[in-house]
Structure formats: structure tokens, C-alpha cells
Specification:
Blueprint lengths: L13 H37 L3 H27 L9 H18 L8 H23 L5 H5 L3 H34 L6 H27 L17 H9 L2 H30 L7 H10 L1 H13 L4 H21 L3 H37 L4 H29 L4 H9 L4 H4 L1 H25 L5 H18 L1
Helix pairs in contact: 1-3, 1-4, 1-6, 1-7, 1-9, 2-4, 2-14, 3-4, 3-7, 6-7, 6-10, 6-11, 6-13, 9-13, 9-14, 9-17, 10-13, 11-13, 12-13, 12-17, 13-18, 14-17
């Protein structure tokens, strides 16, 4: 168990709370660098640099998720049974950082001189390595919030700080990845092997940053509220039964899937949209920056409103409605300026959704512990983490399928673009596919996410649940 070095009063001071918030928050800065690299640039890298077809890449994204299902549960179960002087969660975050960084580099290092089958095999193997590294780092990050504080309002502050840093990670990706890629490629007009080298070297730099940040995070935080220790040994089936007795957790799983299918589908199609519909990929960093920056004030506003008594689920649903409006505009427009404004609106809505999502998760984990007398937060995070990855794969696969349906041909479109030809007239089906991938998929997913949360009423019940858990900890 985590060994505390100071008197209990120290852990209630404002200075410690801010150290805890920022120390943990920077972990998602690192994770988002890795996560958005894979979800925003990887499919484009595969089709335009590595020479892997969109269909093969999309199929790979789905197949590798079945391996993730095994590794996610394995890590989650191990986390639930971990008890060290560093605590339950931090050792896993520290061990996963170098694996994640290596995976980042290998993802964007497909040997361009190899044959199609060999390149695809490389893609499978390196995507599995990357996903496993992300699992090691990310699985502990949701349940650790319960260990960082027992106070619901402070958990909201911790989760909000985390999401602010996550968006700063997204902003870093938005502003610097494309310029870094072209810097290392040697030219903004680079293609083929030169552009592939640009992606690889960019990931080497960002991988080093990820490891450094995760080390700072682990040694800046303290698990001051350990989960209830249960002497009762339970089987896999018993644990699964306890997990799925939690109706709020089932709602969370649906929310995870549709929230991320919509958001990541938009990210996966964005580079295609600005390259071939707007015709100016240099406008993409501005759009991504607005999407990221405008989420930060609404994250802070959501935390403030929650502190004033507005339930988390209401704030989550409000943000989803705002996002649905933005996605609806994306679906019906081909104008770059209008699309960028719509992305700004989506950023405002996503600020509400993301901060409340990560604040709701610890409450749902506590509900399971209250019902079954045992903390299964690691297992629950593993399952939701798998759904998150499945959503990521689904988004990439759907975008890939739409590109296949639209007869996407990178070489022909790049040639026509360079010649100044009208892409909408030459490739109308491809344009329709990209436009639908960019907005339509997200709109449908967001509407479903709003509906899923209608029965959620845990916010009303949580104070009594927390009081009972506090009594149990005092008894231990």
C-alpha cells in the first residue's frame, strides 16, 4: 500500500492539491500526444506514405482490437491486485511510458521499400505494440482519480485539470506536428520516402517527451485514498458479474463507444477533408487549434457549475447537444471557413463533455465498490479502455470503408490538385465519402450518446454512497 510521508493535514493543503492536480494532469498531455498522432495522422501516413491501402489499414485497425481485449483485461486485473509502496496505479504508468514511446516511433517507421504483405505485417505488429503501451499507461489513469482524493468536488477539479492538459497536448499536436513533419522531411512539398522520414523523426522527438512527462507525473502524485481491501478472493466470472451489475457502468460503456466513434471519426477524416475538399492542408492547424483551445474555458466552466450543484450528467448532455449542432454543420458544408467555425463550436461542446466524462468515471467505480464490497476499478477501466480502442478502430475502419466506397486514389487526387483541377467535378464520389466521414458519422454517434444518458441518476445518489464508503474505510 502507498506509504504516506507526511501528516494527514499536509494532504489537505492547497499547495499539495495543486501539485496533485497538475502532476496528474500532465499525464494526459503525454497520452494525447500519442493518441491523436495515431488517430489523426496514421491512416493518412499508411495510405499516402507507406503505400498501404485504405481497406487493408481499416481491417487491421479492427482485427488488432481483439488482441487489445485480452491485454486490456490482463492489465486491468493486474492493476486491481497491485499493492506496492508506490501505490496501486503509479507503477503501471511508469512501466508503460517507454513501451508507448517505442510504439509511437515504430508505427511511423514502415519500411517503404518492402513488399505490400511485409509492410502490412509491420503495421499489425507495431500497432499492437503501440496499443499495449497505451494500455499500460492509460488503464490506471481513470481509477487513480479515486485514489488521489475521496472528495467528489476535488475529483472534478483533478479530472478537469487532466482534460485541460489533454487539450494542451492536442494543441501541441495541432500546431507542431505538421510543421515538424515537413521540417524533418526537408520540404513542405515532400512526398513518399521523405515525408515518411518526417513522420518517423517527429515521433522520435515526441516519444522522448512522452517518457519524460510520465516520469514527472508518477513522482509528483500520491495515492492518499486507497481502495477498500477485500480479503475475499473472487473469480473472473464473479468479477465480471459484479462489474455488469452496475447499470451506470453499462451506460458508461455505450457512452465511451459512441462518444469516441464520433470524435475520432472526425479526426481521422480531417486531413483528407482539408487536403482534398478545402484544398489547403495548411488551414488544418488553425482548425485543430480552435477545436482544442475553445474546449478549455468550457472545461473550467463545467467544473465551476458542477461545484455549484449542477449535476455532471446534465453538463455532459448539454455539451453533446452543442457538439451535435457543430457536427450537423460539418455534414452539410464543403466550405473551409464554415467547417472551421463548426469545429470551434464542437470544441466548446466537447469541453463540457470531456471534463464531466472523466469526473463521472470515479463515481461509477465507487458505485461498484459500494455494491460488491471490492474495488474493481482496474477491471472496469480495462473494459472501458477496450471500448475506447474499439471506438477508435471503428472510426478508422468506417473512414477507410468510406474511402474505399468513394474510390479514393491518393496519387490521382494529388496530381489533379497540383494541376489546379476541380476535384469536386473529377472525384464527386470521393468528395461525398470524405464529407460524410468528416461530419455525418459524428452527428449520428453524438445523438446516440445523448439518448444513452437519459436514465442516468447517480449524481443524486452519490453523496450517500460516498458516506458509506468512508465508514467502511474507517472500519478497516
Amino acid at each position: 500500500m502507498q506509504q504516506l510521508k507526511h501528516e494527514p493535514s499536509y494532504y489537505k493543503t492547497t499547495s499539495f492539491k495543486w501539485r496533485q492536480r497538475i502532476g496528474f494532469g500532465i499525464s494526459d498531455y503525454a497520452c494525447n500526444l500519442a493518441y491523436l498522432l495515431a488517430n489523426t495522422y496514421l491512416l493518412f501516413y499508411y495510405t499516402n506514405c507507406a503505400g498501404i491501402s485504405a481497406g487493408a489499414a481499416g481491417f487491421m485497425f479492427v482485427i488488432t482490437k481483439f488482441i487489445d481485449a485480452l491485454t486490456d483485461y490482463m492489465v486491468g486485473s493486474f492493476v486491481d491486485h497491485t499493492d506496492t509502496k508506490m501505490g496501486r496505479y503509479r507503477p503501471w504508468m511508469l512501466a508503460g511510458a517507454p513501451v508507448l514511446a517505442i510504439g509511437m516511433v515504430l508505427l511511423f517507421s514502415v519500411p517503404t521499400g518492402w513488399g505490400a504483405g511485409s509492410k502490412l505485417a509491420w503495421a499489425y505488429i507495431t500497432y499492437i505494440i503501440f496499443s499495449f503501451g497505451y494500455t499500460l499507461v492509460n488503464i490506471p489513469m481513470a481509477p487513480i482519480v479515486t485514489a488521489l482524493s475521496p472528495v467528489p468536488s476535488e475529483r472534478t477539479n483533478i479530472a478537469t485539470t487532466r482534460m485541460v492538459f489533454a487539450n494542451l497536448g492536442s494543441l501541441t499536436s495541432s500546431l507542431f506536428v505538421i510543421p515538424m513533419v515537413y521540417f524533418f522531411a526537408g520540404s513542405s512539398d515532400a512526398t513518399g520516402a521523405a515525408l515518411a522520414a518526417g513522420y518517423r523523426n517527429t515521433n522520435i522527438v515526441l516519444g522522448i517527451i512522452v517518457v519524460a512527462i510520465m516520469c514527472i507525473c508518477v513522482f509528483s502524485t500520491v495515492e492518499i485514498n486507497p481502495p477498500t481491501q477485500s480479503a475475499q478472493k473472487t473469480s473472473f466470472l464473479q468479477d465480471m458479474g459484479n462489474v455488469f451489475k452496475n447499470k451506470y457502468y453499462i451506460m458508461l460503456l455505450f457512452l465511451v463507444y459512441f462518444l469516441f466513434v464520433g470524435y475520432l471519426g472526425m479526426y481521422g477524416a480531417m486531413q483528407y477533408y482539408y487536403s482534398y475538399i478545402v484544398g489547403d492542408v495548411s488551414a488544418m492547424p488553425t482548425a485543430l487549434s480552435l477545436l482544442t483551445i475553445l474546449a478549455i474555458p468550457t472545461m473550467l466552466l463545467a467544473a465551476f457549475l458542477n461545484g455549484k450543484g449542477i449535476h455532471k450528467v446534465k453538463l455532459m448532455q448539454f455539451g453533446a447537444v452543442v457538439d451535435a449542432i457543430g457536427y450537423g454543420v460539418l455534414f452539410f458544408t464543403s466550405n473551409g471557413t464554415v467547417a472551421t467555425i463548426a469545429l470551434a463550436v464542437i470544441g466548446l461542446g466537447f469541453g463540457f463533455r470531456s471534463s464531466m466524462f472523466y469526473s463521472m468515471m470515479p463515481d461509477i467505480f465507487d458505485y461498484t465498490e459500494w455494491k460488491c464490497g471490492k474495488s474493481l476499478a482496474g477491471t472496469q477501466t480495462a473494459i472501458s479502455g477496450f471500448l475506447n480502442k474499439l471506438a477508435s478502430a471503428s472510426a478508422s475502419a468506417i473512414v477507410s470503408a468510406l474511402l474505399v466506397w468513394g474510390a479514393y486514389d491518393a496519387g490521382a487526387m494529388d496530381k489533379a490538385l497540383s494541376a489546379g483541377q476541380n476535384l469536386a467535378q473529377m472525384f464527386p464520389k470521393t468528395q461525398t465519402a470524405i464529407n460524410f466521414a468528416f461530419g455525418g458519422l459524428s452527428l449520428v454517434s453524438t445523438i446516440i450518446a445523448i439518448i444513452v444518458l437519459i436514465p442516468y441518476d447517480l449524481d443524486k445518489k452519490y453523496p450517500e454512497i460516498r458516506a458509506e464508503l468512508d465508514k467502511r474505510q474507517m472500519a478497516d
